UniProtKB/TrEMBL annotation:
<dbReference type="InterPro" id="IPR015947">
    <property type="entry name" value="PUA-like_sf"/>
</dbReference>
<protein>
    <recommendedName>
        <fullName>Ribosomal RNA small subunit methyltransferase E</fullName>
        <ecNumber>2.1.1.193</ecNumber>
    </recommendedName>
</protein>
<dbReference type="GO" id="GO:0070042">
    <property type="term" value="F:rRNA (uridine-N3-)-methyltransferase activity"/>
</dbReference>
<dbReference type="InterPro" id="IPR006700">
    <property type="entry name" value="RsmE"/>
</dbReference>
<keyword id="KW-0698">rRNA processing</keyword>
<comment type="function">
    <text>Specifically methylates the N3 position of the uracil ring of uridine 1498 (m3U1498) in 16S rRNA. Acts on the fully assembled 30S ribosomal subunit.</text>
</comment>
<dbReference type="InterPro" id="IPR046887">
    <property type="entry name" value="RsmE_PUA-like"/>
</dbReference>
<keyword id="KW-0963">Cytoplasm</keyword>
<dbReference type="InterPro" id="IPR046886">
    <property type="entry name" value="RsmE_MTase_dom"/>
</dbReference>
<keyword id="KW-0808">Transferase</keyword>
<dbReference type="GO" id="GO:0070475">
    <property type="term" value="P:rRNA base methylation"/>
</dbReference>
<feature type="domain" description="Ribosomal RNA small subunit methyltransferase E PUA-like">
    <location>
        <begin position="19"/>
        <end position="65"/>
    </location>
</feature>
<dbReference type="Pfam" id="PF04452">
    <property type="entry name" value="Methyltrans_RNA"/>
</dbReference>
<keyword id="KW-0949">S-adenosyl-L-methionine</keyword>
<dbReference type="InterPro" id="IPR029028">
    <property type="entry name" value="Alpha/beta_knot_MTases"/>
</dbReference>
<keyword id="KW-0489">Methyltransferase</keyword>
<dbReference type="Pfam" id="PF20260">
    <property type="entry name" value="PUA_4"/>
</dbReference>
Length: 234
């Protein structure tokens, strides 16, 4: 397995780079690397490059870039807006969405949501994105957006001239939609959408989409949608 490290300061012209904090901890305690170890760096904005650890101190590590960086293709630019599930299920959701090339994940505030996306929780989710990118080989970080209300999403789709999807067990079957891909997909809370939220989605021209025959948990519905859209990229 390739040993990968996140280097947000990596640029095409970088020759020598210093890593501290979480990445230094990863070098020491996860990779158990030593000077001379070759690793792969990525900056979360598409660049990746090989580097050699040339110095490993108590507070920082120095790495020498080896060769020319490569630029990975950008993911399809879409937003998955989710009423976050409780506890570790949200962390697992972020990991899998990262693997499936979701462009942006937005915590969704709805009338029946039970989880609030605090600043600390958003920071934990962003760290989870970095760890997932290390594992799966993704070079573009999935963005963790600020919490959004459903009304905010309507304005996004108007700006992009692309109808959004509202996942709904009573909606049209996803197989009947064809090859079109939305710019925004909204996944509601376990208590479901309110009548007002459904009416607002209809008013703004969104499609209510049924993605499976049965009622799905939040993370299952989100990943089913992500898999469908991701498959259209290849």
């Amino acid at each position: 397995m390739t040993r990968r490290l996140f280097a947000g300061d990596l640029e095409p012209t970088t020759g020598l780079l210093t890593l501290e904090g979480d990445e230094l901890h990863h070098i020491r305690n996860v990779l158990r690397a030593r000077p001379g170890t070759i690793v792969e760096l990525f900056n979360g904005r598409g660049l990746r490059v090989q580097a050699e650890i040339v110095d490993l101190g108590r507070r920082s590590a120095s790495l020498a870039i080896q060769g020319e960086p490569s630029l990975s293709p950008t993911p399809f630019p879409w937003t998955l807006a989710v009423a976050l599930p409780k506890g570790d299920r949200a962390n697992w959701l972020v990991e899998k969405c990262t693997e499936l090339d979701v462009g942006r994940l937005a915590p969704l505030a709805t009338s029946r949501a039970v989880v609030t996306a605090t600043a600390n929780k958003q920071d934990r989710l962003r760290r989870g994105v970095i760890e997932a990118c290390k594992q799966c080989g993704r070079d573009w970080l999935m963005e963790i957006d600020e919490p959004r209300a459903l009304g905010d999403l309507f304005s996004l789709t108007v700006a992009e001239s692309n109808a959004g999807w509202l996942l709904d067990p009573e909606g049209v079957e996803i197989s009947s939609i064809g090859d079109s891909r939305p710019s925004v997909v909204a996944v509601g809370p376990e208590g479901g959408w309110s009548d007002e939220e459904l009416a607002a989605a209809d008013e703004h021209g969104w499609k209510r989409v049924r993605i499976a025959r049965h009622v799905l948990r939040i993370e299952t519905a989100a990943l089913a949608a992500a898999s469908w859209i991701s498959a259209g990229q290849f």
